[in-house]
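INFO worker-7 received task bundle
INFO bundle size: 2
INFO processing item 0
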Amino acid sequence: MIKPLSDHILLEPLKEEKKKGSIILPDTVDKERPEKGRVVAVGPGKLNEDGKRVQLEIKKGQVVLFKKYGPDEIKVDEKEYLIAREEDILAILD
């Protein structure tokens, strides 16, 4: 299992379903990075100036929106994940 450090968040990318109709989508559309993901694991939080750990607001299992090019891509056992910092998360989806 991957355990993020500090204020890092491990995300499983969620692909958006593309609607098909009379619009022709280029092949590059499938290669775009997702901007939505499910939180797989969170780090313990960042240390502040006083040396106290600040807990993350993000929790495991939540679906979040993040900056398109903020997270780093990693691959573990043929499965793709993203690792983002808490500051790269834009919103939590209900």
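INFO item 0 finished
INFO processing item 1
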Amino acid sequence: MNHESLRDFALGLPHASEHLPFDEYTLVFKVHGKMFASLSLDEQPARMNLKNTPERNIELREEHHWIIPGYHMNKQHWNTVIAEEYASGALIQELIQTSYNLVWQKLPKKVREGGL
């Protein structure tokens, strides 16, 4: 997956938005103001930080050499996914969805139900 396909997938999730809060090279994806992913725009291949459970993060790192501890993130909760040509696009989409879901579940009930 390339930068554009990663961006398109993340923005296709409900209430997702993109921001450049850190610099012009780090695109951050949020749901209702909470970050669920970041994408490095100046890296080739594309690199994306994604949230997951600590246990699953360990499993992913052991199973896939293109998944490493999250760069500039809490390494217990975040991984950096390197979207190289041999990386599974389906798995990357699943990981983006999981990261989004973890953040969505932590939002206040009023926000999730559309009250805000």
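INFO item 1 finished
INFO post-check item 1: The domain at 3-112 is CATH 3.90.1150.30 (Aspartate Aminotransferase, domain 1).
INFO post-check item 1: The radius of gyration is 14 Å.
INFO worker-7 idle
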